[in-house]
Every structure is written in structure tokens, then in C-alpha cells.
Amino acid sequence: MTTKPFRIRTVTAFVTLDTLDFNDGGDLEEKIGQCSTLLREVESRLVKNGYEVQTVRIATNPFGEWLVPSVSGGDSLTADDKAVIVARVQRLNGVLAQHDINFCSLGPSIYPEHTSSICPIIVSAFPGRLSCSAVIEPCDVTASLAAAKCVKLISSMDASVDWKSLIGDGSHLAGGLGNFRFCTTSCVRSGIPFFPAAKAPSKGLGNDNCIGFALGLENGAYARQLLKEAKSIVNVKRVFSDSWKADLLPIQEICFDYVNSTKEATCLKHRIEYLGIDTSLNPSLDQGGSVARAIESLEEVKGKFGRGALAAAAAITTSLQSIPDVLTTGYCGLMLPVLEDHRLAELGTLTGSRDRLDIQKLLCISSVCGVGVDTVPVPGDSSDENLSSLMLDVAALAGRWNKQLSCRVFPVPNQKAGDTTQFDSPYLCNSHIFSLD
């Protein structure tokens, strides 16, 4: 069997939950169980065909539709409300653990009150299985300030005595790492397989009795191979269209075959739907896995992630969103997570150089690449106002160009702009702290 050109970063199942699922005799266990069965079967079929599957995940509809007592709405939460929320979080955590599901996105907050009071509960729950997001519409300062306060709170929770009963030993939050599991989203639709922006459709949209699934890739080395072959921006569309189609159609066939096999199964309470593949270029920390380095191989960029990089990002994104005969979902863009791409992290350390990567450059590229500002370390004492302004900038780009964008930043306690991060995580590399000024 030939070696596959990329890994499957995630197979993500999407399920719509309801408050009734948490009642005695409710459907929570059945829904999570069917998601787990789906994920393991798809994973098995992919592995049998030579693909490496790194994770399986579950994403739900916005948590305000099922986690919060129905009488609360977007109002301030009482102590009794919070007790119910914590109990439901712990119950869901337990069911996920029974099925060995280690990643679950609880969808976005749509109320600022929930962002500041519930998102920290979700993200902090031991052992770090749960994630969530917060919706920010363009010019919604109230929502962005609530998200900024949430980010700041999460960054300091490992040292908070008040949260010890929920966070356990706090190792999953150390050094501000809790924000790995939280982001803001703007113009984001359901069906993104990547976390923490992933969400299932809301209740009442005709999908309540459906469990969908989608795939996300890890393909930095594959990107480098294709861009070296293309050599110039002029050739990106042709090379990507031909190669992506040939390499993705076998995966699509595996997924459709699985869906067809479930249509005769009378024991399934929820029908299964394949949503597609998120074709986004997504780096790895492996040697040769940098997407930024891959882009630098193009003639117009000339080895520096500077002039020409914006044009390259636009050409690549256009190609990723127009692969013939392949069902796609999600961002389908260019992922540039600073702490997940060695070259981007390196560019963030170039003190005094015009080639140094900063937040303005990331925002500029976000205008054409379709993912957003991701895993950016910022000073631990960043003000709520500065964080809010960055989130509003991302929301403005999303709203102006109807792009699915997210913003995920890490305020690092006790570090200032220019300091070197000291993250000890298999998912992250280290860089300098980016300035928000």
C-alpha cells in the first residue's frame, strides 16, 4: 500500500443536543454513543485504506440551546443556574470519557453574558476535553469585550483557588494554555471539523435527527510538495485542482460508502450524513510540515514570507475552494497558526527586521486566506480593550467579505511583548510574545 500524502487530522461528528437529553431517560448517552460508533467505523475504514487518523471528535450545537436552563436565556445566571451547568458539563464529560472521546466542542456562545460566565466553565473542566467559542458580529463591542474578559480569565485560571473543584490539578490550563480551547468566531457556519470553532446546526433547522461528519487534514508537507511543483502563483490552480482531486476522491468514496451502509440499519435512531472535507492547508510540527515555508517556495515570494505572500495566499485559497467533484465543508482556506507552524513562529522572533511577523500582517493575510488569527501569544497584561479591538478587526474582515474567520489568542501570564514563550505542549512550538500596541 502506497504512503498517503497527508494525514487525517480529525474525523468530526456533529450532533444537535437538547435540554431534554439530560433528563432521566433522555437521549444524551444514545446520541454520544451513535457519534462514537460512527467515528470509530469511519476511522477504521480510513486506516484500513492506509490513512493515518490522528483524532476523532464531536461538536454540538450552540451550548446555550441545551447546557443552560431554558428559563435563563441571555440573562444573568443565578447560582442555581450555574450549578445545573456544571452538573451537565460533568455529565457530558463522563459520557465522552466512557467512549474515549477526548475532544468535544460545545459550540459557540451567542450571548455576551454566557461568554463571560459559561465559556470559562467549559474550557476549565478537567482534563481539558471540552472547548467552545463565542460569536462576534461586526461592530458588536459588547460581545467582543465579553470575549476579551473570558480570554483573560481563562489565562489565569490555573492559579485560581475558586475553580479548583472543576479544574483538578490545572495542568491543562497552565501558562494560559486553556485558550487553546477557546476562540471567537465571525460568519462561521456549521460543519467546520476543526476546533474550537466547530459547531453543529442549531435546533429546529431540520437536522435534529441527523448526525453529520466531516474530515479535516494535516497537510503541510503535501502543500510544500505541490507548491514546489507549481513554482509560480500562475500554476497553483492547475496543480492544486489536479492533485487534490486525485488524492481526495478516494477518501470521499470511503465516506459515502459508509453512509450508504447505514441506510439499511434499522437500529440507528439518527440518520448519518457526510458533510465533506475541509481542504484547508494545515501545518504540522514535523520537519517539512510548515505551510509558511511551503509558500516561500513560490518564485513570487522568494524565500521570505513577505512580498508576494498575500497574492500566494489568495491563489491558494481560491484553488482550495474550487476543487472539482469533491464535496467540501468548513474553512477551505489557508491556516497560519503561529504556534503550530515552525516557520511562522521563527518569523515572530525576528526582532527589528522588516520580515518579522506581526498581528497586522496576519490580519492582512486573513483578508484573503479565510481562516483568521490563530494561536498568537500576547502579553499577559493585555488590556480588555486591546484584545476586544483585535477581535473586532477579525469580525470586520469576516463581515465585509463574508468570510468564515476566527480569532484565538493566548495572553501568557507574566510575559511581555518580545519575551519567548515557554509552552510545554506536544501541539505547540514556541515564539516571541506579539505586541497588541
TrEMBL record:
InterPro entries: UPF0210
Signal sequence interval, chain numbering: none
Protein name, entry field: DUF711 family protein
Native organism: Cyclotella cryptica
